[in-house]
Each structure stands twice: as structure tokens, then as C-alpha cells.
Amino acid sequence: AAPAAFSLREVLDAFRRCVTEQQEVLLEPYLSGWRGLIRFLQSLGAVFSFISQDAVAKVALLEELRCRQGVQSVQALLRAELAAGPAALRARPGSGCRTLLRLHRALRWLQLFLQGLLSGESRTSVLCTDAYNASLAEHHPWLIRKAATVAFCALPSRDAFLDIMNVGTKAEAEAVLGEAIPYISQVYGITQELFERHQLLDLP
User: Fold this and answer.
1) Is 95 helix (H, G, I), strand (E, B) or coil?
2) What are phi and psi of 19, to 5 degrees?
3) Terminal alpha carbon distance of the chain
4) Which end of the chain is more exposed for a tag (fewer CB within 10 A), N or C?
5) How far is 167 from 188, CA to CA, in rounded Å?
6) What is residue 74's predicted lDDT score, i.e. its pLDDT?
7) Torsion region of 141: left, alpha or beta (phi above 0 gives left; psi -120 to 50 gives alpha)
């Protein structure tokens, strides 16, 4: 079956469900939001495949962890893995924390890019490059950085992006975007603070 078309509304709905009153970030809606973002990236063609393919693998790994270990939130995942000690965490390339950190960095790039799209102050290629340089670039080898910046030059116009959002008119797309960004930012902020507190932002 063909994958369902991307709609920004599903990303909004997922991230809206993400944070509990206790400020826990729930994994099920987080991963659901990411599946929507992956569909968004895939709808843009091969330009973003270097990020979307990686994200697909990371989401699948975290989904498996969530089901197998029964961890329901980002906080529970960190607690479970930190219990074995920081050294054990650094030695495990397939750890949930490490996997989550990779998605977390990519979420920052998407958050910045979507914010830029909403403001509409520059060409999409410039917005995307600026967002990438402020988030993912420092974690990528030079070759990927170079390929990414070249690929961003081929991005469609802002209007085409708003059309890809699949939520109606340009004004409706802007409204949903404006609604979704604060939820994505909140999830990013809580996760960032958690990783900072446990000194996990540079997990290898």
C-alpha cells in the first residue's frame, strides 16, 4: 500500500499529546509526530533522504524499545538506561538515549526551519541552510554538510511548502504551522533540559 499523504495536522495532533501535566514527554505521540515529519521529508524527494532514512531507523529502534521494555516516556527511558551508569551508556551504540539524541538534534533543525517558513523572511534554501547550520551541521561529517547545502538550493518555494503541508489554503497552512511550532518547541525544550541535566548532549 502507498504511504499515507503527509498532513501537518497529524504532526500538530501528535506533538500536542506529547507532554503530560508533569512535563513528561510521552514516547508514543513523540514517535507518531516523527512519523509525520518523516512523511513531510519524504514528500520533498531525495533532497532529505539522508535525514529521513536515518530518522526511520531511529524511530523503529525507539518503538521497539518502548514495546519491549515498556518505557512510556523520554524520562523513563533515561532513568532506565542511566541506572546502568553513564559509562555503560557510552559503550552502547544502540542505546535508546543515543538514538533519541540523534532525533532530538534533527527535531531542532525542523523546528527552526518551520519557524523560518512561517516568518517567510527568506528563500526556503536560505532558511533551510541557516536552520541546518544552527543544529545538525556540527554533528555531520564535512561531506554530508556539503551535500546537504547543495541539495537545499533545489528546494521548492515557500508557497509550494505550504501546499505540501496538506491542510488547505496558504492561510490555513500558516495557521496550523503557527499552532504546531510551540508544541514542537516545548517537546524540544524539555528534552534538551533533560539531556543537559544528565550531561548526555555529547553521547558518541
Assistant:
1) coil
2) -105, 125
3) 37
4) N
5) 24
6) 94
7) beta
Amino acid in position 137: A
Under DSSP, the state recorded for 26 is: B
Mean pLDDT by 10 residues, the chain (204 residues): 71 95 96 93 78 89 90 92 76 82 94 93 91 92 88 89 90 94 96 92 79
Contacts of 147 (CB under 8 A, 6+ apart): 50
Could you tell me which of 151, 150, 155, 165 has the C-alpha nearest to residue 118? 165
Three cell numbers at 145?
A: 554538510
The one-letter code for the residue type at 55 is A
Q: How many other C-beta atoms lie within 10 A of the C-beta of residue 13? A: 16
Q: Which domains does the chain have, with CATH numbers?
A: 8-196 (1.10.3520.10)
Three-state SS string over 56-106 comes to HHHHHHHHHHHHHHCCCEHHHHHHHHHCCCHHHHHHCCCCHHHHHHHHHHH
Beta-carbon contacts of 122 under 8 Å, excluding residues fewer than 6 positions away, are 116, 130
